[in-house]
Amino acid sequence: MALAIASQALGNTANNSIPIYQNPSHSAKDRAADLLSRMTWVQKIGQMGGVRRLLGSDMSFNQTSYEILAEYQNGILGFGENYNLASDVLPIANMVREEQIHSTPLGIPYITVTDSVNSIYNLGGTLFPPSLSLAASFNLPLYKLAVGVIRDENVAVGTRWVLSPELDLAKEPHGGRVGEMFGEDKYLVGEFGTAYVNTMQQLDSNGYVKVACTVKHFVFGQSSGGINAASQYGGINHIMNEQAVPFIKVVRNANPYSLMASYSAVDRVPMAANKFLLQTVLRNTIGFNGVIMSDAGAISELHSLHLVSNSAEDAAVKALKAGLGLELSPGQPAMFPNLVTMANDSTIVSLVNDAVQRLLEIKFVTGTFDEPLPTMENLKSTLRNETHLDIARKASEEAIVLLKNDGTLPLSPPTTNSSRIAVLGPLAELLVMGSYAPNNSTEPLHGKPFLQSLQDFIGADNVDYFQGVDITDISDSSGISAAVSVARQAGLAIVCLGSVSVLAEDGAANWRTDGEFFAHPSLGFPGLQQDVLDAVLDTGVPTLLIMTGGQGFVLQNSTVNRASAILHSFLAGESTGEALVDILYGSVNPSGKLPITLPPDSGSTPIYYDYLPSDVGSYWSLPVLDRANPPFKFGYGLSYTTFDFSTAEVRITSDNTNVSVLASVTVSNTGSVLGKEVAQLYFRQQYTAIETPNKQLIRFTKIELAPGEKTMINWTIASDELGYWQNLEWVVDSGNFTFWIGSSSRDEDLESITIAV
Amino acid sequence: MALAIASQALGNTANNSIPIYQNPSHSAKDRAADLLSRMTWVQKIGQMGGVRRLLGSDMSFNQTSYEILAEYQNGILGFGENYNLASDVLPIANMVREEQIHSTPLGIPYITVTDSVNSIYNLGGTLFPPSLSLAASFNLPLYKLAVGVIRDENVAVGTRWVLSPELDLAKEPHGGRVGEMFGEDKYLVGEFGTAYVNTMQQLDSNGYVKVACTVKHFVFGQSSGGINAASQYGGINHIMNEQAVPFIKVVRNANPYSLMASYSAVDRVPMAANKFLLQTVLRNTIGFNGVIMSDAGAISELHSLHLVSNSAEDAAVKALKAGLGLELSPGQPAMFPNLVTMANDSTIVSLVNDAVQRLLEIKFVTGTFDEPLPTMENLKSTLRNETHLDIARKASEEAIVLLKNDGTLPLSPPTTNSSRIAVLGPLAELLVMGSYAPNNSTEPLHGKPFLQSLQDFIGADNVDYFQGVDITDISDSSGISAAVSVARQAGLAIVCLGSVSVLAEDGAANWRTDGEFFAHPSLGFPGLQQDVLDAVLDTGVPTLLIMTGGQGFVLQNSTVNRASAILHSFLAGESTGEALVDILYGSVNPSGKLPITLPPDSGSTPIYYDYLPSDVGSYWSLPVLDRANPPFKFGYGLSYTTFDFSTAEVRITSDNTNVSVLASVTVSNTGSVLGKEVAQLYFRQQYTAIETPNKQLIRFTKIELAPGEKTMINWTIASDELGYWQNLEWVVDSGNFTFWIGSSSRDEDLESITIAV
């Protein structure tokens, strides 16, 4: 519509009287170049930062602070405090946006850039579970619907650039950000990441990118001790064959407009100053051509934390030279404003011009110069509409993984008051959604904790709730015996344990052990939670364990052997409490699969299914850590029905130029209820020039089958997909390849076929 | 003497009638080249392997197996089973040695190559504690005496080449080989390694190297999950600034004749095939010019484990091309014999010639061609003589670290029968010496466990021993209450806990959780040992904790707060039991310092004092793992006296070509007994081009002071020592440097001085 108006305006005016940058008929690239040529040095530097925290809590707006900041940092706009309501924020954001367009010399609009993990940045949107949970669905079509919802709600608040998706591999379980990631597998992460970016960056009816994406954090996920900003060792083969893999796929298949460099020092060079990884590897080898931005304080930390810059000026220059073009700086002072004094340095000037050109192109492709500001009317019809809530419910249902079931589940529908249930454990009354979700876990504006969902379904009178212990306090075990009594009286116990990852302002913030700024040496349940579970299991009362948290937990043998059923619900969306109830009572058949391998012990790390062959130790070794057979392995998850995999076949096909592998398998629902299964295809080349994983996922497909129904799944894999990186070269060798087809990464769930390719 | 005879023989013969290689007046290099020119292809290949297991248990010798092996593997000789007595082995070894000299075409003698960690390879030598324990002494002069003993005893059995020292950094506490290493610090490891090699490789009176050394394992120590043969990620800055540092120092300052490549795949390239690290880095950058050998099965594992070679032949070729020249292959088949079919490949021929030249040079420099075989007479006068045993006792005394003392220690000498002591815990009756010590921990041929040492000192009637629990069994806690009763009755308890690292044939082998082929996810005491300790501490009876094992253990807060005293004795030498008693009763004042930081938790890894600045997390991070302040940090250890550090000074000096830092401090014994203290100097450059450790050790000096005595310590550090490696270049920047002087790596034990260099 805006485009139509602009075109009409053009018709009434001589083309040469309108600057190219204001003319939508020109390409984004040309418009950006034209605008760049009109900008002062200070205006250029201004684009390389922005105002990230427009509003404080309770909608506070500090005009003086804003103006001081905006003088040298005026490219991007962020909303600040998550707990403000989107509908309250919009008018103020629009006021600032308008002012920027109309009261600055060239009228260069802000582009609004925010985090967007579960939902839009502020309260008021549809709340999905975060990435790890959605990855557990292994359902890409459903995921695309979910991202479409989040995208449209972002557009409705005027956010046209998000700081997602996070493509880091969840291979360090001690870290606090596992729940933000898509799991441990590079293929799975790449597929979900590609789906995210392609969905977010879809073009609107005017041909503008709806929401530009930022893939992050290049590279992160295996920091020392799991600490957020800590270093990692990685050599280049490790990085290219593991951490970079999802980035390579997403860059090549979805063209994300920006990328965030991580906080980490990689091989002792902080990523914000890592020219080798950002230029030689990311730009030249991988082919990324968008904006590279800093993680929030990362440029400043070159000076203050890593100690590789001896001044703020040096930090700014090092980051610019490494390839960074945008500084996200919620904390002040920012570093890039130091560049304003360097207008006479031709190297700096050239790099700044490159950076601003890329930044302006994003503004043009997203229609920031052309489309009208978002309206309250559209916001109200978009946020939390019925379609959106329905998709969120479905996403939550598929994000839950059933890990054990002795037949206790599904429960019979409650018929009389005599079917009482004891709910125990401190996680039952929280709706824990991760450290980027604008909701309150103790009193959610949207959604209900599991306890309330169960009470609403079977009646509060039928539920005996007792917390038993605090989440993190280890000094008070006095409630355990009462919890045991409650379990005994009810005859069926549901124990809800896990960890808390929420915003700092959340009602449960004091119980956090997980989330962006946390690392947890212990991988068990925090505090005395395991003690409650043990005590209840000691009674012999049938017990269901529901785990909550954006991480894997150690499941002790005595828990696995004695619990009647075990579910992992990861981090919640607003419908997760209800989805859990639906699964418990069988109206929803669980279909999630583990996107991470659960650690057998706090010290048993790293643990993941795609270890290198030598990582189990030599042939005469006696490893205590059995990497090959962890108790709950990637890709594993149960259903209320059973599936049979049969007539698996793998063969080669080729035309004149390409060789492909065709793999197929027939999956049958051999049980008695409708269910979904995830067929998984793994491979390994028998011998490779450098060490490659014992097996790795190459395809997965989720299917729904009625009882007795069967379907054949066909996969085509180009032989080029079967290679690996050696010293920055992609190598595809011929040789024997083994393919495994089945329902999880566990050997016992897979059939193997070896062929020559 | 042999040299004199040879020279005399030369006098009676025309020089040109004796082949150069038989003429000791020529250089080792020329003799090797001459011999090489006379050798057949098969003879050359034969030198690149050997017979590692001459004898089985009970002195069994299989002539047929020996001959089959020796056909293509006849360069080196090893003794096989450790538990055979050296005096029994010598005649058979000499028989085989003689036969090789007299019955093969060129009479090329074997060189005897064995492990030598605590002592000579076989039973019968003086038994020292292994490396971690000796490093805890921080006493280099004493260490050189100890190595001199082990060297002379090796010469006495004819071993002229050892598979030591191990220069790996003990930075992965889950691994089983920490006890074999010199600790976590690269400087400390380099100093001990240099002392080892310079002492071992001393020249004998004939000018021959007494015992050639093998530095190992290049590179190892941070394998995934602590598993022996597992991979590591390391980039080149990490390797050069950390793992390679001791190798660089020892290669440049002590010229070891050989080096062992590790089992690990580094950045996905197994070290046995890692041409980049062995050629570009080790040979060209570091300057190592000796023999590179495989770890035992490492060449074979290229094919069988890492899957980077598709055949045994390919494995042999890859290893040779990477730079390996000797295959240590206790398990058969070996890979290098496959080279016998490749005499027509000029590249292979050239590499084999290079390798054999280096191997022969070691034989010439060690006098293998010239000196007589070892005699039984010399063996008997050398092994376990009084001087040797005295040095071993002193070494054990200084290898024990006192970590806490509330004043309970030293104990008063026993005067009456009423001073009873309860000894509890399963480690009291074992003498655990590590997985390379030829002794039996349950019935040691030499040395006494702590329990027996205490009984001998205060009378068996005064000691109430109760094991309490097994070492690894977690099913039986029934003995704990009896242990508690024994403690209560005695009124003083000594609880002996730890882990077992012994040879596979040892009486305690079933209790092993530590040693070469083990990894331990848990860093606590194995089994239910902590439960015994907790139960005894609960009683309030004064309790001393003695830890045993080649590793750090988690010391829980409740242990540290309640134990009266805590000692770590690491792995034992034959005198460790008695040394512990001497320390308990004050006839020896403890003076050891921690060569490793103790882990606060099983999941709190990596943990070491010289972390990178960013490894604590960013300025707004809330790390749960507090790397800066672990409870027991590198360099820490208590004494029965007190020391004062005063008037610390650091200044610059320069002559025309060099700049040096002069550091000094005055240390006073301010207590009432004679004692030893380790003065430690650490440094950090304020800003560096890549991230460097928060601080690192650069000097240490151990001194003995009488009460009231003081001494000034002066250190000179060339400015060139203050650099770091960046992309294979050694960088020395000017700038501000902070130096810390004190008694441990803890901030509270250090005084800091910052100067410009």
TrEMBL record, chains A, B:
Catalytic activity entry: Hydrolysis of terminal, non-reducing beta-D-glucosyl residues with release of beta-D-glucose
Limits of the Fibronectin type III-like domain: 677-745
InterPro entries to which the protein is assigned, alphabetical: Cellulose_deg_GH3, Fn3-like, GH, Glyco_hydro_3_C, Glyco_hydro_3_C_sf, Glyco_hydro_3_N, Glyco_hydro_3_N_sf, Ig-like_fold
Keywords for the protein's UniProt record, in alphabetical order: Carbohydrate metabolism, Glycoprotein, Glycosidase, Hydrolase, Polysaccharide degradation
Enzyme class, first EC level, given as a word: hydrolase
EC number from the UniProt entry: 3.2.1.21
A GO MF term: beta-glucosidase activity
UniProt record, GO biological process: polysaccharide catabolic process
Pfam family for this entry, one: Fn3-like
Pathway assigned in UniProt: Glycan metabolism; cellulose degradation
Family indicated by similarity: Belongs to the glycosyl hydrolase 3 family.
Name of the protein this chain belongs to: beta-glucosidase
Organism: Coniella lustricola
Species classification: Eukaryota, Fungi, Dikarya, Ascomycota, Pezizomycotina
